[in-house]
């Protein structure tokens, strides 16, 4: 991008706000479901009589959104590469917002029987479609307007939406649980949190979606996309083209991201059930942390996630993408190999759980920071929205959708160390992909 194409200071501030606020809202919507999937939905939507079975059913529906995300990336990617980034980002935000609001209105199993989990599954799918179009659009909004040599720094802002959204989601639940005196042993038919409290974050999301829409409707199109339009490079079928011409970046991009997804959803979702005694089997004697106490530990840990995103993103501008991401991935592999020593039934305590969460989130911040620069740099402008979105969201299936489900089964049968080996194995796959992938720090987006 030439100097003439770089937006001036006022639009750049607007771009920063739009890319970060939008992803914060969408991840808030996504994570309030993740919290409810552990603490609420097993009792209200999947009352099987067995904690582990109910939790597995809840995690299975949780994973539906990740299956939907590639659908969203192809749908919104098609329009993002055809009509532009701005309109598509508005569409993804509305889709996510409506689905989240409607979840807050759903009847439970006690009221309508099997229809309740069916409706929950459908709306969870819609959530996934919306988020599938969100991340890649926000990433392109940031990177396609970045100054020369500063794409990593520009890409910090959409990445910060993930920890900020998580923080707001869990803080909102904590603000409800504490005054209500929520306890997991309370009957779901009696406690006000089960009756109506869990719905509040879902319904309140409508207000912040309105704020996000206001910000995004004031955006202008990115100069890189506008240049592609002027050059006649728009495609009629970006999805078909990306699979035909960019299949190698699709595979590499997916595998580069998969360890980050697995790490996050093991550390912040599966560990919630393990740490709070939500499993019937393989319970650590020293771990039966109360739900509100565990959320406090998560909020501490996620602050490290946010703090370390800028560290790796800025280093990736100075040193290159691969020299930063390869050592971090080795660190994730090493972290997986010590799960048993940190969370094993004989050694686990609340302190070791906090250490586990903090180390996991430091590694997450480090590997996640440069990703919204790395993936767009792999694809040409006319398929960049579609390609980066598909890679990112297919990784969500392979890394996130199945991670809590697999980990719950593994810990029940083989113990915590097996969960760590699972993470280490996924880390090896990402490490190989990073070694094979090209270095893209100095690549011009208009030349890809």
Write the layout of secondary structure elements.
Elements: H1 9-39, H2 41-44, H3 51-82, H4 85-103, H5 109-112, H6 115-143, H7 151-154, H8 156-180, H9 192-197, H10 199-216, H11 223-230, H12 238-245, H13 247-275, H14 291-319, H15 321-337, H16 339-343, H17 350-368, H18 371-374, H19 384-401, H20 403-413, H21 416-436
Helix pairs in contact: 1-3, 1-4, 1-6, 1-8, 1-10, 1-13, 3-4, 3-6, 3-19, 3-20, 4-6, 4-10, 6-8, 6-19, 8-14, 13-17, 13-19, 13-20, 13-21, 14-15, 14-17, 15-17, 15-21, 20-21
Helix content: over 70%
- Indicate the low-confidence ranges by residue numbers: 1-10
End-to-end separation: 12 Å
String of helices and strands: HHHHHHHHHHHHHHHHHHHHH
Radius of gyration: 21 Å
- Let me know the CATH homologous superfamily: MFS general substrate transporter like domains
CATH architecture classification name: Up-down Bundle
């Amino acid at each position: 991008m030439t100097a003439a194409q770089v937006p001036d200071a006022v639009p750049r501030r607007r771009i920063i706000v739009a890319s970060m606020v939008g992803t914060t809202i969408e991840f808030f919507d996504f994570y309030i479901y993740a919290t409810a999937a552990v603490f609420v939905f097993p009792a209200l939507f999947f009352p099987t009589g067995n904690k582990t079975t109910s939790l597995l059913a809840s995690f299975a529906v949780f994973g539906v959104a990740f299956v939907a995300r590639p659908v969203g990336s192809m749908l919104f990617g098609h329009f993002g590469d055809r009509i532009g980034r701005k309109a598509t980002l508005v569409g993804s935000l509305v889709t996510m917002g409506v689905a989240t609001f409607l979840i807050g209105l759903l009847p439970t199993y006690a009221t309508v029987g099997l229809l309740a989990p069916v409706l929950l599954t459908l709306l969870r799918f819609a959530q996934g479609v919306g988020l599938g179009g969100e991340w890649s659009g926000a990433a392109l909004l940031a990177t396609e307007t970045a100054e020369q040599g500063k794409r990593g720094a520009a890409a910090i802002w959409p990445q910060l939406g993930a920890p900020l959204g998580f923080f707001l989601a869990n803080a909102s639940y904590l603000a409800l649980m504490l005054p209500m005196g929520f306890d997991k042993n309370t009957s779901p038919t009696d406690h006000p949190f089960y009756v109506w409290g869990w719905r509040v974050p879902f319904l309140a999301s409508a207000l912040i979606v309105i704020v996000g829409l206001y910000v995004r409707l004031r955006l202008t199109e990115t100069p890189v996309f506008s240049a592609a339009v002027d050059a006649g490079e728009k495609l009629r079928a970006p999805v078909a083209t990306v699979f035909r011409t960019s299949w190698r970046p699709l595979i590499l991009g997916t595998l580069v991201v998969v360890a980050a997804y697995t790490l996050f959803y093991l550390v912040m979702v599966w560990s919630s059930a393990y740490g709070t005694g939500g499993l019937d089997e393989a319970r650590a004697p020293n771990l039966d942390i109360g739900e509100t106490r565990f959320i406090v530990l998560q909020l501490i840990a996620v602050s490290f996630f946010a703090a370390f995103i800028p560290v790796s993103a800025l280093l990736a501008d100075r040193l290159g993408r691969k020299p930063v991401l390869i050592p971090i991935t080795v660190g994730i592999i090493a972290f997986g190999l010590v799960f048993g020593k940190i969370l094993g039934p004989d050694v686990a305590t609340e302190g070791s759980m906090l250490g586990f969460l903090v180390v996991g989130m430091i590694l997450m911040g480090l590997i996640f920071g440069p990703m919204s620069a790395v993936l767009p740099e792999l694809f040409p402008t006319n398929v960049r929205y579609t390609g980066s979105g598909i890679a990112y969201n297919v990784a969500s299936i392979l890394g996130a959708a199945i991670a809590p489900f697999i980990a719950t089964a593994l810990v029940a049968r083989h113990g915590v160390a097996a969960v760590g080996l699972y993470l280490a194995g996924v880390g090896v796959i990402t490490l190989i992909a990073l070694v094979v992938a090209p270095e893209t720090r100095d690549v011009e987006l208009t030349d890809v």
